[in-house]
Fold:
Amino acid sequence: MKGKQPGTPDIYGLMAEFRTPHEVVEAAHKVRAAGYSAIDGFSPYPIEELSEALGTHRSALPKIVLGGGVFGLLAGWGLEYWASVIEYPFNIGGRPFNSWPAFIVPAYETTILFAAFGAVLGMLALNGLPEPYHPVFNVPSFALATRDKFFICIEAKDPKFDRVETRRFLETLSGEVHEVDH
Amino acid sequence: MSSAPIRQDTHQTEHDRLIAPGHDFGTVTDTISQIVLQRRTPLGWVLGFCISFAVLQLLLLAIVMLLFKGIGVWGVRIPVGWGFDIINFVWWIGIGHAGTLISAILLLLRQEWRTSINRFAEAMTLFAVSCAAFYPIFHTGRPWLAIYWLFPYPNTMGLWPNFRSPLIWDVFAVSTYATCSALFWFVGLIPDLATLRDRAKSKPWKIVYGILAMGWRGSARHWHNYETAYLLLAGLATPLVVSVHTVVSFDFATGIVPGWHATIFPPYFVAGAIYAGFAMVLTLAIPLRKFYKLEDFITLKHLENMAKVMLATGLIVGYGYMMEAFMGWYSGNKYERFMVWNRMTGPYWWAYWSLILCNVVSPNLLWIKNLRTSVPFLFGISFVVSIGMWLERFVIIVTSLHRDFLPSSWGMYAGTRWDWAAFIGTLGLFFTLLFLFVRFLPAISIFEMRTILPGAAGVEESK
Structure:
């Protein structure tokens, strides 16, 4: 723990701990209403209301998945066309080189394959994972965020952040407020 | 969780609830993660793993024998050029379908009861596909020489696969299926791996689970993208549920062999796959819940719902058999008629009628509620159905091929001891992987179980 003097902004932020999903969602609304913007909530399972209360924007993921799918379709069909028509045209049972109805199945599969990769890699990229280090883990009780506790963190970079004032404000919402070291 | 309203409407009777009363976020987390994190490995696990691992050695022996002598050690001869290899391939692939149906389609249909069975059903899918993959790879005899006609890559001969062939469609369908199932499974595991990371006592396991969890911290913004990804993956896996076995059925249906050349094949294969898959899920779920005392999470309601899915798909499969026989007669084609007659009364009559008994007659017992909710009965019938579905593939493949168009090309087929060694060996592989899975990864999705707790639903109701 470095820089313990009050008022010095060399902490990552302040974190409030909650026991139920109701409390955390309610608190999230209040934190937003108080004008804080560099905030995040943590919960052991997805709570839509919490994301909404914190002002999460629409995910860009569907577009990434669509892109992956379109790429997969073109790549799959392109491969079939190139291999069967351009690279090695070969008469098999008198069928046309570009046997597009027969080419549907592999192209369909590559569409799904690349869209699925888009969904997984896109989700990880948008979330900035893998992330080997993050300050929130410095709060000892944060290990319970993956069990049964709920948290809201106001980051020090928030323009409204004040080590003392923000702490006082968070203490009106929750009995337990922790400082988050860098 | 005292402030949360209990959802009395859906969780009333013992037969009707998805999770036993008295659980909260903490107990759900601890009960499931305890199975993985306990120091002492249960004796039963060690015993089961050792047996499975020993049986797995049979597969290695069968592979060595095959590579050493060639596929002559198998029973395939003209006219029956496809035997145990494709029978077992279709059987294993079919089993996998229940996992995908549970994880994808039931998620989109908002069937909450999928939540405690989806994780190990998905694991079952992955392991079943691994077992299935053995057959197409090794039926080529010398797999390292056969890859160029399966996968498109620039090879020294400058040749490319024939993309018009259903066998190539199969390569694409099955490999996409395996990859997407693995992705779906892993994405579902990320939050639970984070739970294990935070709850593991020993440093090495903290590091292992920590690396796998990739720094997941349950951030609301992350959950938002995560939920979107999970839903989209479910949407992408849904067409795979119906397309993979459809493509597998094309391997047969596009051929002109009587008994294979039928338009009913795709839907009837898909129904059969789900039927066999649910039987396998029951085979696994019943000992799992008993051994690890998970009756609170895998309740009678789950077992009964699975029995209902089995009954429904079993009836579809029965309809498929009926239509096959009807079309054989109605086609007016003498080869088709002979094929049906030969199936029922020819040298393999026992296989056909055993299959009817296992797949069409016995599932009708599930109409009776007392049987449908009897755990020993369900365990028994899941075996009957698994055997029946194996026989179905045997009948489709062997009885269609063994009587060729010309009586001079008639023959008989039986699996050799190496066929059986390979089949039993893949069962060893399957159960070895499953034992490892339940020991090192949470067999029930912890974070999804939290979402169906009464306290979790309270958020929506309080707003």
Notes: The radius of gyration of chain A is 25 Å.
